[in-house]
Amino acid sequence: MEELVTSIKHGSGNSTILLSLYEKKIRVREVKEALLLKTGMVMGEGTLLPSESAEAKLAANEILLKLDSSIKEIFKTTPYLTYIKELDTTTSKLWNHFRKPVEILLRKLILGVPVIIRFHNDADGSSGAVALNRSIKGISEKMGLKPNIIWIMHRSVMYTKTDAEWDTLIANNFSAIEKPLLLITDFGTSENSNNGIEALRKNFDIIWLDHHPIEENFTGMTLENYINPWNFGSGSDYTAGYLTCAFAHAFHDSDTKDMEGASLIGDSSIYGFQVSTGREEAAILDLITSDPTIISKADGNLVPSEIESILSDKKKKSEFFNYAKVKLDEVLDRAFLQMKHLKAGRHEIIVLDYSEIRSEETKYPLPGRFASKLLTEADRRGGKHYMAIVHYNQFISMRAAGDVSDAVNIPEIIKKMKEIYSSGIDSGGGHKNAASIKVSTYGDKKEILRSIIDEARARLAIL
Question: What is the 3-state secondary structure (H, E, C) of 281-342?
């Protein structure tokens, strides 16, 4: 039986992935400290063929052709459905577009090629990561795979050149017969990601799953495996976490109902009220991604297995959920004593300086996410047609209630602010009912905040 050396992880505990055909089936084997082996070599019965030899190339080609054939059989041709009509319609439209990125992901997993998965640090991004990990774990156990996956919880919605350099350093710890893979979920579509994309695209395969409105100059759209519901007649209410759950079902059926609900609820999708589970999970994900030190993560990076260790333990799950609820209620009560109420025609804008109420005990809740909670609570306590603006340090977060979000169009306000204060704003973006900007070191936050309020009031006043 001939085995192809597909991947080698360098450093202490050097390990090598070997791929072979066994009775016409793919078999993956991991060996430790195989210092004489190099990628592309073929091991046979007592022989070791160098990668450049004709015999090795012929054997490698036969193994890889069988691999491609096996992968094609794994993809599930029937779309994953959850019986929420609007979501299922979009899933059916984009299902066949999952095929190629799924095949790429599976190929990398089987070959042991480094796979870097970055997910946004909120309930939406982390729910997608957990669902994806469940399917990867399931298919790996089924096929006996030894994948090399690096999970990174990303604290921004931009993929910068610095991020690309870091991912390149990670990939350099491996030798492999193919490019490494970067999979991104729930990042924005800001042109601030362009430099990162361009720095990486030649040396990596990239899969990008997102649901943010697509900005005009965003080069991520040119990636071959970029998937966004906006390109399929849907929008941001088809959340990135839900998209990633559906993607995960295209190659392995794990139970992701809780993560689908957590994504929809956590990202304030209009479909959140139609799910029967996920509310507790959304609160917990929001809590621990805001402040990983709550679960003793000093380095700030959470991986799906650590998240699962909480969600799968009934006692821990209850404790974390209750803690999140108590802390959120405390901050909301302080907010209602401090926030300003500004009239805008028949409507109202609430404005809050988050620095005046933020707890020193924990980073939870983060300002942007708190803006959503504040808007929801304001409506529950008797308000109607609210818009909330929460600012903290250099950040200004805006949220608009669903029935006025189209008219307010927060991304349009941000675009206008960028045009007026070109050097005063570092970045900005989001959805029509939830978006934020970061004021640059050259910007006057007070002036920009006043302009945002004036623009929002003008838009609300005519409703």
Answer: HHHHHHHHHHCHHHHCCCCCCCCHHHHHHHHCCHHHHHHHHHHHHHHHHHHHHHHHHHCEEE
